[in-house]
Write a structure and sequence with these properties.
By secondary structure, this protein is of the alpha+beta class. It is built from 9 helices and 21 strands.
Length: about 350
């Protein structure tokens, strides 16, 4: 199957949606804040919104071309769409909901998704995870060439969400369909997608794998979304082949990456250690600051110290007896400090 080609240009309330994207046999996630244009883009592919300008085509079959006036209705586009709230028919059984997508594959999909024992139940009798499986099975019953997922995990409680994240990711890889999903949660995108596009005010500001976005975020906004530290500074050659970076607050850090002029300094939170005083060892970078916040994340704790955020185990946080307002030293290695060139007039 050839790639899905999408070009969309459409006015939104205060900005314009401008996206050009090609999707192969992979899952591509668009992640960004509410109102960035994610759902409008998905609906344009599905045929639920007709963009002002654009085209959608797969394998030479044109679903949309505003130049020539082609615009197939949703039912003529080979698309499986899973809505955020799943949109199951409450008066139909599980079996009937799945068969509504297509009868030929209904029985097979009920078995494949572990829904056969629930076939005669109604959506109101199902858990959130079970409803998600029914919605996905119904979408696949159409035997679609493209799968579209709108916030596929948002309707789930925290525990169910964690359990189903890995399962959904595995199912998407098995399907091997061009798949587009939109979400405001970067962790969901990283778990489910092969590539991630960060959408800001209608435009993809960076597209890459989760690892690429974490290693080299293109802007402070992307860094914040991916959960890494992004500091601005001025770089000059330093001693021992290192690059010296003077940060905006006057402190200095070092990197093994070459760089000069205005740079973004990227440090992932889990490569930062915390101590009451600068520890002995090979790590070059020591930033002393007050604890601004402590935020539990699962069995770990995110600790904001001065200009950076560290992520340590809950046991380490308890052992250090960390409290907001106390002074600690954040330490990280020059080898774990990435540099991203910035234009002199780049926005903060």
């Amino acid at each position: 199957m050839g790639p899905l080609h999408i070009r969309v240009s459409h006015p939104l309330r205060v900005f314009r949606l401008e996206i050009a994207l090609d999707v192969g046999a992979e899952t591509v996630a668009l992640v960004g804040p509410s109102g960035a244009g994610k759902t409008t883009f998905l609906r344009a592919v599905a045929g639920l919104v007709r963009p002002e300008h654009g085209s959608v085509a797969i394998d030479g079959e044109v679903w949309l071309d505003t130049k020539t006036g082609v615009s197939l209705p949703p039912e003529r586009r080979s698309v499986g769409l899973v809505f955020q709230e799943y949109a199951l028919f409450p008066h139909l059984t599980v079996a009937e909901n799945v068969a509504y997508g297509g009868r030929a594959r209904a029985a097979e999909l009920l078995e494949r998704f572990g829904l056969a024992p629930l076939a005669q139940l109604h959506p109101g009798e199902l858990s959130g995870g079970e409803r998600q499986r029914v919605a996905l099975a119904r979408a696949l019953a159409r035997d679609p060439r493209v799968l579209l997922l709108d916030e596929p995990l948002a309707a789930l409680d925290t525990q169910t969400r964690a359990e189903l994240k890995a399962e959904l990711g595995e199912r998407l890889r098995e399907l091997g369909l061009p798949t587009l999903l939109v979400t405001h949660d970067y962790d969901d995108a990283a778990a489910l997608a092969d590539r991630i596009g960060v959408l800001v005010e209608g435009q993809i500001v960076q597209l890459g794998t989760a690892a690429e976005l974490v290693a080299a975020p293109a802007s402070p906004f992307v860094a914040e979304f991916t959960g890494v530290n992004f500091l601005r500074g001025a770089a000059v050659p330093g001693f021992d082949g290192l690059t010296e970076i003077r940060l905006a607050d006057g402190s200095t850090v070092y990197s093994t990456d070459p760089g000069s002029g205005q740079v973004g300094v990227v440090v992932v939170p889990w490569e930062i250690t915390l101590a009451r005083s600068a520890p002995a060892g090979s790590a070059r970078n020591h930033l002393t600051g007050l604890i601004r916040a402590l935020t539990p994340v699962g069995n770990r704790v995110r600790v904001s110290v001065g200009p950076v955020t560290a992520e340590i185990t809950a046991a380490s946080a308890e052992q250090l007896e960390l409290r907001p307002g106390e002074q600690v030293v954040a330490t990280f290695k020059a080898a774990g400090t990435r540099l991203v060139p910035l234009a002199p007039d780049a926005p903060p």
